[in-house]
Every structure is written in C-alpha cells, then in structure tokens.
Design a protein that fits this description.
The structure is a single chain. With 310 residues, this protein is α/β, with parallel strands linked by helices. 39% of the residues lie in helices and 25% in strands. It has 2 domains: 238 residues, P-loop containing nucleotide triphosphate hydrolases (Rossmann fold, 3-Layer(aba) Sandwich), CATH 3.40.50.300; 67 residues, CBS domain Like. Helix 7 runs parallel beside helix 8 and helix 9 packs across helix 14. The two termini are 37 Å apart. Bound molecules: adenosine-5'-diphosphate (ADP) and magnesium ion (MG). The site of adenosine-5'-diphosphate has 11 residues, from strand 2 and helix 1. InterPro entries: AAA+_ATPase, ABC_transporter-like_ATP-bd, ABC_transporter-like_CS, P-loop_NTPase.
C-alpha cells in the first residue's frame, strides 16, 4: 500500500501540491487524471523520490519513503516516461536489461529476460532483440519502454502520460497491453494522464486532480455516475465535446450485445446522447433495424479510444 499523508510540495512561490491525502492499494491499477499543471507529475515523482515533499510523509508498505535506501527504493519503482527514452546507442535487448546489468545479473539471464518480455508484448525477439531503437516505430519503442520498466520485477510501476505522443490506434493497443500486463504481473500500476477517456478505460481507481488538490477518488463508474463537483462533471463532459458521428457507427463496427429488450435510443442518436444515456445505466438498448443491441460504457470508451477526433 502507498499512502500520502498531508503531503504538500511548494516550488519557489508556487504551491504545486496542497495537503494531499491519498491511498493506493497494493496491486491496484491507479490513475491520476487532471489537466496540465494540476500536479500529477509532481505527485508521481515524489513516489520515487525524484522530488521531495515540502511537508508531510509518504508511506510505502508502512515504512516512510525517506527511510528507504534510495537505490533499493528505485529498484522497487519502475518508471515509464512520456517521451520514450531508450538509449540510442544500445540495442533493444541491452536497453531492456540495463538495470539488470547494473544489478550484476549474468548475461545469459539478462538475455533470457529481455527475450521473454519482448515475446510478452508481441515483438518477436528473433527480429527485435538486436535492433537499434531508431529501427522501431514510436509505438514499438514505447512497448520497449514499458517492458524495460518491468524487467527487474519492481513492486510498483509509475507511468507518466506514456501514450500521449502516440496516434490513437497505437494508444489503444498499448492501453490494452498495459491492462493485460497488469493482470498477468500483479504489480501496482500508478498511471498519469490528462485524458479522462484513458483514465476510465484503465483505472480500477481514479483520482481526479486540479491545481494541486484531489477533487474525487473512486472507480470510473463512481466518477461518471456521481461526479463530486462541477469541475469533475465538466472535465468529463468536455471530453465529450460535440462529435459528428452517431451511434450507428458503433453498431456498424459490431459493438454491443444483441438483445430483445425494448430500445431507448435509435441509431441516429449522437455519441453525446449515448454518453448521457449511459450515465446511471449499465447499458442502453439501441434499435438498429431488425435487431436491437445493448451498448455499455466500455463499448463507448473502446470506440472513442480508437476514433479520437484529433
Ligand atoms: P502536471 O503533471 O499535472 O501537468 P506538474 O506536477 O508538472 O503538473 O506541475 C504542477 C505545478 O507545479 C504547475 O503549476 C507547474 O508549473 C509547477 N512546477 C512543476 N515543476 C516545477 C519546478 N521545477 N519549478 C517550479 N514550478 C514547477
Ligand atoms: Mg505532467
């Protein structure tokens, strides 16, 4: 478990974090979401002690973070950056194993670990292990960035807007990938994003931040159905800015479950109308010609993740 207790961080003349109290359960997929400048990166960097709080304490497994040996602590906290930061002069397998090497793992074990991780993210090790970073696409490089953070099996993985530089299709693929890795690896993931859709797709728990304050912590369903205040409501609704597409687009792409239940929406309804109808409902039945289909929030989020109007 990670606990922030009355944590504040002040930069010269600027209160970035103001009396933060937050609990992150062990093994959770925890998302910090908020607009730029809300203090997400500062919060994340306090977790691996890249930034020290001005006030308050952070506890990791019931021990104060500052009481850990820094090197030991960093080994427990994998870190994935927004800008893929692979070492350009090292090949892919050397990049993945760089921490393992500094820990003195034998070469054979490092290579095996790198190859197993590449396989786990669908990059054929025979093809990719010895390539250089500039021979990979952005999405492939970010896959490597992620598995590099996992290579020595940290307890916690910190991710700071890791997908924001990627196109919508790669972003969706990598969201699926981190969900799958989280399921398989049983580590705690702390994921930062400014994108509410991404937060709702990924987070088991979500903390919405604004100007150094937590606005609401809860599950995606809690936040969508019972926004704590106007900021949270507005932040969610802004993400649903008018869109030209209709519910028919989801039906055409095969989303939803066939049902004989009565329909409450027609296929000509807008995406925004569907989002509104889903508030407080697990699913909404849409009449699409002969048959009706029940569309759920995950259907909508999945659709939006691939169809983001940029
Ligand atoms: P986010 O990641 O949510 O965009 P940050 O944690 O980076 O937010 O920043 C929170 C606030 O702290 C912002 O107002 C930002 O300008 C300020 N800030 C961040 N880093 C520094 C720094 N090194 N010096 C002064 N102010 C900073
Ligand atoms: Mg940031």
């Amino acid at each position: 478990m990670i606990e922030f207790r009355n944590v504040s961080k002040r930069y010269a003349g600027n209160q970035a974090i103001d009396n933060l109290n937050l609990t992150i359960p062990t093994g959770d997929f925890f998302v910090l979401v908020g607009p730029s400048g809300s203090g997400k990166t500062t919060t994340l960097k306090m977790l691996n002690r890249l930034i020290a709080p001005t006030k308050g304490d952070i506890y990791f497994e019931d021990k104060r973070l500052i009481d850990y040996d820094l090197t030991q602590l960093r080994l427990q906290m994998g870190y994935v950056l927004q800008n893929i930061a692979l070492f350009p002069n090292l090949n892919i397998q050397e990049n993945i194993a760089i921490q393992a090497e500094s820990l003195g793992w034998p070469r054979k074990q490092r290579v095996e670990r790198a190859r197993a991780l590449l396989k786990q993210v669908d990059l054929d090790p025979d093809k990719y292990a010895t390539r250089m970073p500039n021979e990979l696409s952005g999405g492939e490089q970010q896959r490597v960035g992620i598995i590099r953070a996992l290579a020595i099996k940290p307890k916690v993985v910190l991710m700071d807007e890791p997908f924001s530089a990627l196109d919508p299709i790669s972003r969706k693929q990598l969201q699926d990938l981190v969900l799958q890795l989280h399921k398989e690896l049983q580590m705690t993931f702390v994921f930062v994003t400014h994108d509410m859709h991404e937060a709702l797709r990924l987070g088991q728990h979500i903390a919405v931040m604004r100007l150094g304050h937590i606005q609401q912590v809860g599950t995606g369903a809690d936040i969508m159905q019972h926004p704590a205040n106007d900021f949270v409501r507005g932040f969610f609704e802004n993400e649903h800015a008018p869109r030209p597409d209709t519910v028919q687009s989801l039906l055409s792409e095969g989303y939803g479950q066939t049902t004989s239940a009565p329909a409450t929406l027609t296929a000509t309804a807008t995406i925004n109308e569907l989002a509104a109808a889903l508030k407080g409902n697990v699913s909404v039945v849409v009449s699409g010609g002969e048959i009706s289909r029940a569309l759920s929030t995950p259907d909508l989020l999945d659709y939006l993740a691939t169809k983001e109007a940029n």
